[in-house]
Prior knowledge:
Helix content: 25-40%
Shape: flat
Number of strands: 0
Amino acid sequence: MNKKASTLKVEPGKILRVYSREEAANFARQWMEVFGKDKQGANMKAYL
């Protein structure tokens, strides 16, 4: 069965929430703890 190639379309949308500088920094820190550890990719053990 042949599948039609899907196209991803990214465009501006409605802003759902604005985070404070502190909240954004916290999200970035948590993200880096999981996905940026030693720049080796995802560290799922730390995430779970």
